[in-house]
Amino acid sequence: MTQHPPAERIVVLTGAGISKESGLETFRDADGLWSRHNIDDVCTPEGFLRDPMLVSRFYNGRRAELAGVEPNAAHRALAELEQAARDGSWDGELLIVTQNIDDLHERAGSRNVVHMHGELRRVRCMSCGATPECQGDCLPQTPCPACRHPTLRPDIVWFGEIPMHMARIDAALAACDRFVTIGTSGTVYPAAGFVAQVRDHADTLDINLEAPAIPTLFDRTLVGPATRMVPRWVA
Ligand code: BV8
């Protein structure tokens, strides 16, 4: 029997704003991470080469924070929508492409999640390429569990590095009929360019505390906190 494509194929792009009400900081809000950390020092490969201890401490601190927070109603609403597709009560397909490196989507129950900027809960060995889980601190001298070399780095995409899973993301964007952005300032590429990539074939919606910088980019906008607006959109 031919497999009919689902009635709706939705791609959701999330940014730091979806995790804000869980207690994690955003980047570009007034009190955000970039108000206290210099991007070049902590979010570039050059910064890591210059001072691996500073960068390791930056990510160790965010990993420690992550252990103390929980998914919120926005993460849970997306997980429930995916569950509806799995149990057949919704004839659709949902892929979450996240710029976030936290694991709150997964802890809310989402399985179709692509981390295009990497994940806090993993590190990467620059000698053997292993990407072991990392629950606690990882320091420049921490030996890789696979090859024992002290050459671990955060498994994170820094500025100037190529985002992960781009082929899968581009294929999903080309096939989607609805594209929703949640809690992102739309300032970092290539993620910020996704809406332009889909506008000719998908309905586009932005969910954010503020109206989008270029409102004409989206067919619709829902302005308000993610924990209120995402469950309303999913319902
Ligand atoms: C690449 C690491 C090539 C993880 C991050 C000149 C022009 C255009 C582009 C460039 C340029 N020069 C350089 C570039 C490329 C560069 C770039 O885009 N620079 C920008 C700054 C101009 N990009 C890159 O280098 C990327 N790589 O381009 O490689 C390539 C591309 C494709 C294919 C092959 C090769 C790599 C970018 C990744 C950098 N890594 N972080 C980490 O430390 O977390 S970026 C960082 O910004 C985070 O990943 C974050 O996710 C991302 C985006 O930020 P947001 O998530 O949007 O967060 P922000 O704070 O900005 O906004 C929060 C929003 O939430 C706000 O709108 C707020 O209103 C809202 N909000 C707050 N509270 C709530 C809420 N919304 C709802 N409810 C709430 N309660």
UniProtKB/TrEMBL annotation:
The GO terms this record gives for MF are: histone deacetylase activity, NAD-dependent; NAD+ binding; protein-malonyllysine demalonylase activity; protein-succinyllysine desuccinylase activity; zinc ion binding
Alphabetically ordered keywords of this record: Cytoplasm, Metal-binding, NAD, Transferase, Zinc
GO CC list: cytoplasm
* Record InterPro entries: DHS-like_NAD/FAD-binding_dom (IPR029035), NAD-dep_sirtuin_deacylases (IPR050134), Sirtuin (IPR003000), Sirtuin_cat_small_dom_sf (IPR026591), Sirtuin_class_III (IPR027546), Ssirtuin_cat_dom (IPR026590)
Reported cofactor(s): Zn(2+)
CDD domains in the record: SIRT5_Af1_CobB (cd01412)
Q: Which residues bind substrate?
A: 59, 62
Active-site annotation: 117 (proton acceptor)
Binding residue positions for NAD(+): 15-34, 99-102, 183-185, 208-210, 226
Q: Which domain of life is it from?
A: Bacteria
The UniProt record lists the EC number as 2.3.1.286
Q: What class of enzyme is it?
A: transferase
Recorded hits in SUPFAM superfamilies, A to Z, give: DHS-like NAD/FAD-binding domain
Swiss-Prot/TrEMBL domain comment: 2 residues (Tyr-59 and Arg-62) present in a large hydrophobic pocket are probably involved in substrate specificity. They are important for desuccinylation activity, but dispensable for deacetylation activity.
What this protein is called in its record is: NAD-dependent protein deacylase
Q: What is the lineage of its organism?
A: Bacteria, Pseudomonadati, Pseudomonadota, Alphaproteobacteria, Acetobacterales
Q: Which gene encodes it?
A: cobB
